[in-house]
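Sample entry (227 residues):
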Amino acid sequence: MLLCLPAVLTKDQVGQCRGVLEGAIWIDGNATSGQQAALAKHNMQLPEDSPEAKRLGDTVLDALAANQMFISAALPLKIFPPLFNRYQGGESFGTHVDSAIRAIRGTPYRVRTDLSATLFLSEPEDYDGGELTVEGTFGAQEVKLPAGDMVLYPASSLHHVKPVTRGARLASFFWLQSMVRDDGERALLFDLDNSIQDLAREQGLDHPVAVRLTGLYHNLLRRWADA
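Predicted structure, serialized as tokens:
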């Protein structure tokens, strides 16, 4: 399932992030690449242990914790600390699959990458190219969203970022381990949750059908969840 989440960050938050990024020191994006990805990756990023990355990462994590659509779709168990990258001057990222396991630097913890996320921090009109292209069952989907919006997609997908030929593309990117590792099962739970919420708005959460569907949702989650 590929899902676009609107307004994860407000325009004010995006402006604050961009202000920090404009004054930051950037390094080669391959600092966090796997062996295969390093052959295809051409961009810059903030050092993952830099004060700027940690400060902005906390802003992103706080926003995600308050975003009910994200919680419902991802069912997050662990989130890799958000990273930040920049593409400009023809930089791109060729077709690749994200590493299955990411170690969190300086800790004994690892994250199984069930889902990948890109949170856009540049407006689409500020740069040419830079589309995130994700290959799926029904073909390739190109994603280029307004600043503050985020796309969530299976980390197992082949994907690439097209060359940025004008301006600069700023974004946050990260991975997460879901309580439900199977993408199809997560999609069913997300659809069921949305249906329950629609029914609750029309009939009330205490409607007998809403109560039965809520029980079904939790019993499926209980069956499928790792945590």
